[in-house]
Amino acid sequence: MDVQLEKLKFDSNGLIPAIVQDLKTREVLMMAWMNREALDRTIETGKTHFYSRSRGKQWLKGESSGHVQHVKSIRTDCDADVLLVQVEQVGAACHDGYYSCFYREHQPQGEWKIVGRKVFDPKEVYKGG
Amino acid sequence: MDVQLEKLKFDSNGLIPAIVQDLKTREVLMMAWMNREALDRTIETGKTHFYSRSRGKQWLKGESSGHVQHVKSIRTDCDADVLLVQVEQVGAACHDGYYSCFYREHQPQGEWKIVGRKVFDPKEVYKGG
Q1: Residue A44 and which of A58, B17, B47, B110 are 20 to 30 A apart at CA?
Q2: How far is A57 from chain B (nearest CA, A)?
Q3: Chain B residues with CB inside 8 Å of A105's CB?
Q4: What is the pLDDT of residues B36-60, one digit of tens each?
Q5: ipTM metric
């Protein structure tokens, strides 16, 4: 039993937000939700697992694309209700083909501007899937 | 009216998670929640504002400590349901005195280890408050 995990505060749905950061570039790659099982699996396997609220099930990041995230550290914040997971990203984090999911930036006027770098073509990676 | 903000997906409580990252060091400093009003105020003033779920009201980050965050960019992710705010941090982000709120790291065995750097003594900064 991992007593450290007993201190974490999962919300009323049993979930905790997990921010994923690239260890090398220090880019924030994505945020997703973990339940206790996804966190256990992440620690066990060294690859990030999350809980999909829309699909109602656990998933391994990269299960269809191969773009897994190798976990290098797991931190928590002062309230113990958010996780920060530092990873080595294989491929890219975003299913839209960008390295980071945060690829759009707010502008003083106008529209969200694409500022992220595109790494792959989603049509190629997810074909047939 | 800022049409960009119409595209954001606030949750059923009218909230969106906002990850705050230090622009210079690229450390992830904290995560807190914004409602639409807190986001509008953040954009207007150039200082981060959040919505406190426990206190049921908006707050300016640094209102008691003076440790405000000057906003340099606001990004959103592929699903438009999370924000990434890059800031210049005055003082430190964490009310426990650490530069980042994510100052504890999970260990293979044992207990959460303090890995963050302490910047101030909370007893001094919040005295009388």
Answers
A1: B17
A2: 18
A3: 73-75
A4: 999 999 999 999 999 999 999 999 9
A5: 0.96
